[in-house]
Specification:
- The chain contains 18 helices and 19 strands.
- By secondary structure, it is an alpha+beta fold.
- It has three domains: 17-143 and 407-515, GroEL-like equatorial domain (GROEL, domain 1, Orthogonal Bundle), CATH 1.10.560; 144-213 and 370-403, GROEL, domain 2, CATH 3.30.260.10; 224-367, GroEL, CATH 3.50.7.
- The strands form six sheets. Strands 7, 8, 9, 10, 11, 12 and 13 form a seven-stranded mixed beta sheet that branches. The protein has a three-stranded antiparallel beta sheet with strand order 4-15-18, sandwiched between helices.
- A hairpin with a 4-residue loop joins strand 16 (476-479) and strand 17 (484-487).
């Protein structure tokens, strides 16, 4: 006897199975990657996202685009996670990773239609990825930290087509200067969040963006009598409350018994004595600028203003850490413990008006590794996109500072990897050859889309690139600005080795993971099950109501029938 597994009720209520799950997964991945294809390259397009409330976001950032999409399919969410991890690790290459992943799955779908088993495709893809890493190693060039022109060329690559001309050169210069000033860890990564601060302000064009070697705090001057500008000052950093008469502050606690007018005067004199003691201790240490993590009383602010001391309260923890790194000072928990050795140094502390808002600039810290990028733009959308681009550029460029490696750009790396994989595929006599060859075709999607987005014929460009690489010109790629195939290294077209490596590996891992899935069991949430149970009960109630109504009508008919019968008998 033959039984169909669909006829046996194995799964309990609340669970369901997806049919044709592998084809569905591949189709979803291809759809998501298609969204990003037109955004790839220096001539890539931007996308406009409109929310339900009517808010509009225009972006050329692949990660931002995907994260704002409302998707429910697990494969779509997986691709968004690939973009997120790529962005956090390298700051760039999110579109490349997603597009390659979609291309790998599309090619795998064609092989599955040709009756190639999924395990064979997975094994072939893994071997192809290993070979691709070898090709990347052979193409990579180590970049010295002093080669500023190459660094600027790499920075322009990260900026893509969002800026052009002098604006692109100015922003690329800011990225290079910021990366050169911050410390680099052994891994080549930079603690961007700790060392580089990004401040966004509208009201001016992008060329007005500047780099400040120090810290900028968006705060108004606390007192009109405090100085607007101070030079060559010592800075005190306090992590304690300067509101001495709060209940929880024990450092300045004193007891006063007020039983008459004279005692009240004594209490007022005591308050003045405490305020004078606090200001005196800070002045004696040599500090003329005070940054306090907690609150400063209004009376004490007035005392500081009289003595010409600039005091700022409620400074955030991140800003306190940056101030300590910028000035070389130490954060002190008690005013009584403050000494001259705890103070930091700054050449300039000044309040300035930026876009109508007052901001405190602390500059001139020569030994500081803390920098602030003040990003300007004509509109909020421009500033937000500039912020995203510069953050990603700083993150990506930090991977090649201090001995990092670069690759030829303009699709040159992908074409060389593809050519080497085609030669490598001939090593295999079985169907793995088809999988390796499919991997090569998927990698070529990148130069194809770079050319297509620039308005070039992708087939003509790809054939010319293949011919150049077959002739031994491994660094040739497409320059979309010159609209021709050129030597990428000579023309300043670069990709970061770690960015490209991580993108290819992430795409391969995701594609092989999806290919190994041949079934999906969906467990409905408790809320969904509850809603379905309520609907079932409502349907049952309505049905019961209809049945009762029918039964009632039937009883009425029977009663009428009995009455008619009795009347008929009586007449007879």
């Amino acid at each position: 006897m033959t039984l169909s597994n669909e006829s046996i009720p194995v799964l309990s209520r609340g669970y369901s199975r997806w049919k044709e799950v592998r084809k569905t997964n591949i189709a979803v991945a291809v759809v998501i990657s298609e969204i990003l294809k037109t955004m790839l390259g220096p001539k890539g397009m931007s996308k406009m996202l409109v929310t339900e409330t009517g808010d509009v976001l225009v972006t050329s950032n692949g990660r931002v685009m995907l994260e704002r999409l409302r998707v429910s399919h697990p494969v779509a969410r997986g691709l968004i996670e690939v973009a997120r991890v790529q962005g956090e690790f390298a700051g760039d290459g999110t579109k490349t990773a997603v597009i390659i992943a979609g291309a790998l799955l599309r090619e795998a779908g064609d092989l599955l239609n040709q009756k190639v088993h999924a395990s064979t495709i997975v094994e072939g893809y893994r071997k192809a990825a290993g070979k691709a890493m070898e090709v990347l190693d052979s193409l990579a060039i180590r970049l010295s930290a002093g080669n500023e022109e190459l660094m600027k060329s790499a920075a322009r690559t990260f900026l893509g087509g969002f800026f052009g001309g002098k604006v692109q050169d100015h922003v690329a210069d800011l990225i290079v200067r910021a990366v050169k000033l911050v410390p680099v860890k052994k891994t080549g990564d930079t603690s961007v969040e700790d060392e580089v601060c990004f401040i966004k302000k509208t009201g001016c064009d992008v060329n007005a963006s500047e780099l400040i070697r120090g810290v900028v705090i968006c705060r108004d001057k606390p007192h009109s009598r405090m100085p607007d500008k101070m030079t060559n000052v010592k800075v005190a950093l306090l992590n304690c409350s300067l509101h001495p008469f709060l209940r929880k502050v024990d450092e300045w606690k004193r007891e006063y018994i007020i039983d008459g007018g004279g005692r009240l005067a004594t209490f007022m004199d005591g308050m003045k004595e405490v305020y004078g003691d606090i200001v005196g201790r800070i002045k004696c240490s040599g500090a003329s600028v005070v940054f306090c993590r907690k609150r400063i009383s209004e009376r004490l602010i007035d005392y500081f203003a009289r003595e010409g001391v600039l005091a700022l309260e409620l400074v955030s923890e991140k800003d306190m850490v940056r101030l300590a790194r910028a000035t070389g000072g130490r954060i002190v928990s008690y005013v009584k413990d403050l000494t001259g050795e705890d103070l930091g140094l700054a050449k300039l502390v000044e309040f300035r008006k930026v876009a109508g808002d007052e901001m405190l600039f602390l500059e001139g810290c020569e030994d500081s590794a803390v920098v602030t990028l003040l990003l300007r733009g004509g509109t909020v959308d421009v500033v937000e996109e500039l912020d995203r681009v510069v953050r990603n550029g700083v993150k990506a460029l930090s991977l090649i500072v201090g001995g990092g490696r670069i690759l030829p750009g303009g699709g040159a790396t992908e074409v060389e990897v593809s050519e080497e994989l085609r030669r490598f595929s001939r090593v295999f006599a079985g169907k793995e050859q088809l999988a390796v060859d499919a991997f090569a075709r998927a990698i070529e999607t990148i130069p194809r889309m770079i050319a297509e987005n620039a308005g070039l014929n992708p087939n003509d460009v790809l054939m010319e690139l293949r011919a150049k690489h077959a002739a031994g010109n491994r660094n040739f790629g497409v320059d979309v600005f010159r609209r021709e195939v050129v030597d990428a290294l000579e023309c300043g077209l670069f990709d970061v080795f770690e960015v490209k490596r991580h993108a290819i590996l992430a795409a391969c891992e995701f594609a092989t993971m999806i290919l190994r899935v041949d079934d999906a069991v969906v467990a409905k949430t408790s809320e969904t099950r509850k809603m379905e149970e309520e609907k079932r009960r409502e349907r049952k109630r309505v049905l019961d109501e209809k049945i009762r109504k029918v039964i009632g009508e039937d009883e009425e008919l029977r009663e009428v029938s009995r009455k008619l019968t009795s009347l008929s008998s009586a007449s007879d």
